[in-house]
Write a structure and sequence with these properties.
The chain is mainly α. Helix content is 69%, strand content 4%. The protein has two domains: 104 residues, no CATH class; 293 residues, no CATH class. Helix 12 runs antiparallel to helix 17 and helix 17 packs antiparallel against helix 18. The two termini are 44 Å apart.
Length: 472
């Protein structure tokens, strides 16, 4: 408090301050964060917790502050960390190792910071209304209910159920945060820029890994050689988005840029040697050709030429991988006939018979999450875990995504940017539906984080377009 009030009267005295006028949240938050950081230091030192976890803890505090101050910057950090963050093994659950990735922690820290900001601004509970909200909440309820029954009846462990349910809910948090935070088309374009920037970095990294040999995987995938099928699914989805933006590019420079981004992924996509991803590429490409209203004939011609040339220009590793599929001494029954395919292909075919056997035991709400059986098939997994109730809701979510994407694409009010996103998302979704035949695609972190982020932008586009066209 300034001692000479008369001297400061009518002037802005630099020595005058009044802490009593500060909002309670502005006083409490720094004190709370300082206490949390000090407590963290004591706990990490006393219990001798590894340095990498200590580092993540303090990075988490910084990201919390960023999310509290500016949600846009926090979401950009999340976009960059989706495929560029390390993972840490924490044990096993349901027959597989449980890995916690840095972006998993960042997501929850950002969510807490966002919720804290909403609470202080008295905006808690205000979420943008979308056609998906009620279906998502119903699906979460079914997952938790079926898992609770599984835990109480000793079919699944509470530890594995907790972590897998947390992973499922994590993707929906992305959707809710992004839809709630998006207010302008400029924001949406900024988020897409950083999404494609991350994709470009992954393409450069993957191309650099090809001479090393072996199957190409994402960076920071820890022990065991990584998951090439996951990288294949990610590149598939991002190529679809790049193609959509290319077909509806606002000018020639944009079209050339997105064509380059599409082509940059082709070589690493082939060197993932993921047959499920290769199979999914064709329905993805056909969806682009079927629904685009621009450059349809040139695109069809290029597609036919590329497919015709593929047997002659494909790397020998790709040709060998295709031939391996049908080299086997063991047969499996498919549609009443014996087919000779590789062991991995046989396992994916047999997953359907395993799924239906377990489904018949508990057809309504399933065995709980996770279902106790490792199955690389998304549809079989949903049937086992949540029964018909969860499968119907899962199908409704996917159906609503297709409906909204088609509506935005065909809307007379849509901009080229909106049409590019909607076409790319539709094609990417169709591709991932086929990819799900050989992987539990819709629970894979590196695919689902960008997928749900773009889904949130898609469902926000109608409101953003209306707001942009409204008179000021």
């Amino acid at each position: 408090m300034c001692l000479d009030k008369n001297a400061c009267e009518g002037l802005k005295c630099p020595f005058t301050f009044n802490t009593m006028r500060k909002p309670f949240g502005q006083i409490l938050t720094p004190a709370l964060l300082f206490t949390l950081a000090a407590t963290g230091v004591i706990v990490f030192v006393f219990f001798q917790i590894p340095a990498n976890f200590a580092f993540l803890f303090f990075v988490g505090i910084i990201i919390f502050l960023v999310a509290f101050a500016n949600a846009d910057i926090a979401l950009i950090i999340l976009l960059l960390s989706m495929l560029l963050s390390p993972e840490f093994r924490t044990g096993t659950a349901a027959g597989r190792e449980v890995a916690i990735r840095a972006d998993d922690l960042f997501l929850f820290v950002i969510f807490i910071g966002w919720m804290a900001k909403m609470a202080l601004n008295k905006e808690l509970g205000v979420l943008r209304n979308t056609p998906l909200n009620a279906i998502i909440l119903a699906y979460i309820v079914v997952c938790i209910f079926s898992s609770a029954l599984g835990v109480m009846q000793d079919r699944i462990s509470i530890k594995s159920s907790f972590f897998f349910n947390l992973k499922y809910i994590e993707y929906f948090l992305i959707f809710f945060m992004v839809t709630n935070n998006l207010k302008t088309m400029k924001q949406a374009k900024r988020f897409m820029f950083f999404l494609f920037l991350t994709y470009a970095i992954i393409c450069v990294y993957s191309i650099a890994r090809i001479p090393v040999g072996g199957r190409v995987t994402s960076p920071f995938e820890g022990r065991g050689g990584g998951e090439p099928n996951t990288l294949g699914g990610y590149l598939l989805f991002m190529m679809a988005l790049a193609a959509g933006m290319m077909l509806y590019g606002h000018n020639r420079r944009n079209r050339i840029l997105f064509l380059a981004l599409f082509c940059a992924a082709l070589l690493p996509f082939m060197f993932t040697l993921s047959r499920g991803s290769w199979l999914a590429f064709f329905p993805m490409a056909l969806t682009l050709l079927a629904f685009t209203r621009r450059y349809k004939l040139p695109a069809i011609a290029v597609f036919i030429l590329a497919v015709s040339a593929l047997p002659f220009v494909a790397p020998h590793q790709v040709k060998e991988r295709v031939q391996e599929t049908f080299k086997s001494n063991k047969s499996t029954r498919l549609l009443g006939k014996d087919v000779y395919v590789s062991e991995s292909a046989q396992a994916r075919i047999n997953s359907w018979s395993v799924a239906f056997k377990k489904f018949n035991i508990r057809p309504v709400v399933g065995h709980g999450v996770p279902g106790g059986t490792v199955i690389d098939n998304q549809y079989a997994r949903v049937l086992i875990e949540t029964g018909m109730a969860g499968f119907i809701l899962f199908a409704l979510i996917l159906g609503m995504m297709c409906k909204t994407g088609f509506e935005v694409l065909r809307s007379a009010e849509s901009t080229d940017f909106a049409r590019g996103i909607s076409l790319g998302f539709l094609a990417g979704l169709i591709g991932l539906l086929f990819h799900s035949l050989s992987a539990a695609t819709f629970i894979l972190v590196r695919i689902m984080e960008p997928f749900w982020f773009v889904a949130a932008i898609l469902f926000s586009l109608p409101a953003l377009i209306e707001k942009e066209k409204a008179p000021v």
